[in-house]
Amino acid sequence: MFPLTANPYLVDNPENVRFKSTFAQKYGRRATLYAEQGYVTGMVIAKALDKTKGQINGKDFVRVMRSLELKAPRGTIKFDEYGGPVQNYYIRRVGMIDGVWQNAIAKTYPSLSQFWTWSPQEFMAMTPYASMKGKWATK
């Protein structure tokens, strides 16, 4: 079992501290994972608009978005060659923290892509999940 070390709401970086404080002041409640995801999506769009001086030109704009590396509340985010995020992944479990049941970070896997620990070529060579239907467990 992973040790209970910290609440994911308390990811220890200046961006998260600022995000949580600003969100709580504006909305009168704690930010959720979904609020942070929406915020990061806005960050990506805003930074891309800054780089293109407000011009949106289809594939060029997407290319600019994919070239970004951002310091987000959850940690640094960039994009792989397929447009998937490369970011920290947090394994969580529920625990009592400061007298309140909360999701807590049990383990952090830093800077992983959608392919986890495999290269894209290794991952794509694996048997697709759909082909494994009925083969994972027996009755």
Task: Give the mean pLDDT.
Answer: 87
| Helical content band | 25-40%
Identify the CATH architecture. 3-Layer(aba) Sandwich
Structural class: alpha+beta
Query: So what's the CATH class?
Result: Alpha Beta
Features of the shown structure:
single chain; 34% helix; Rossmann fold; 139 residues; disordered N terminus; alpha+beta
Explain what this protein looks like in three dimensions.
- There is one protein chain.
- This protein is an alpha+beta fold.
- The protein has one domain (8-126): Rossmann fold (3-Layer(aba) Sandwich).
- The chain contains four helices and four strands.
- It has helices at residues 14-27, 33-51, 58-66, 120-124; strands at 69-72, 75-79, 85-97, 100-112.
- The chain has a four-stranded antiparallel beta sheet, covered by helices on one side.
- A hairpin with a 5-residue loop joins strand 2 (75-79) and strand 3.
- Helix 2 (33-51) packs across helix 3.
- The radius of gyration is 19 Å and the shape is flat.
- The two termini are 28 Å apart.
Note the topology:
Layout: H1 14-27, H2 33-51, H3 58-66, E1 69-72, E2 75-79, E3 85-97, E4 100-112, H4 120-124
Antiparallel strand pairs: 1-2, 2-3, 3-4
Helix pairs in contact: 2-3
Summarize the structure.
With 139 residues, the protein is of the alpha+beta class.
